[in-house]
Write a structure and sequence with these properties.
44% helix; TIM Barrel; 16% strand; 11 helices
Length: 287
Amino acid sequence: MRIGIGHPATIPGVKGQLILEWAKKVDAGPFSSLGSLDRLVYPNYDALITLTAAAAVTQRIRLMTTVLLVPLHNTGILAKQAASLDALSGGRLTLGVGVGAREDDFRAAPASFHDRGKRFEVQLDTMQRIWSGQPLAGDIGPIGPSPVRPGGPELLIGGYSPAAIQRVGRWGEGYLAGGAPPPMARQSYELAEQAWKAAGRTGKPRFVAAMYWGLGPNAAERAGNYLRHYYAVMGPMAEQIATSVPSTPEAVKGAIQAFADVGADELICWPCIPDLDQVDRLAELIG
């Protein structure tokens, strides 16, 4: 199982210089991908812009949205932005995409909330047409630039509802289980496998999971405070998330192993503490 790491751009108060230094340190380490989270109504940096900044200071690491909330975005512009990032980074973009569940994000965009699933599917079709070089209509020319890989960047589908998971069969190259515990992540992946086979596709979809973590002095308290803030709209569930984050070397290693045991191909470790030494601490654990 490959190990990726998120950047701290969703943690309030983080400065841009730390994000750049974080990306450079990750690129020099044993990690497979640098992950980015999307949210609108929160003091975080934009997911794609942050990865574009990271692309400029890295050479090797893959750049992954985990996930990008596509229905918040204009389809044509998003397709162009993703293709541009992919081309500028030498084909290193993996686009993890999802629908989103926070209504305040949609009100702020603004974008309609209750039909977001149907719009998402139309957006996926449209983006793949754009990335393959097809014009959207007889009087509309192609939208560039061309992604490095024909047909567009690697596309992973995130979400837990049956409708979300079914989309892997038609549009995705893999399934992204963001924040689910290992058994739930595995169950969702098996549904994605079924959708993949039902669509007549060969091979297997990729299985990518994600987890929160923190290490070092007062890690449990510091990580918990961030997660309580981030998930405040979820009420009591926020406390459950905050108190369950792995925050010792043993707990983090155990959590990583649990995802390996359920067959994940890659695990993205989302940081909860905005200190550069977190990258070193995690690198030490995974070797």
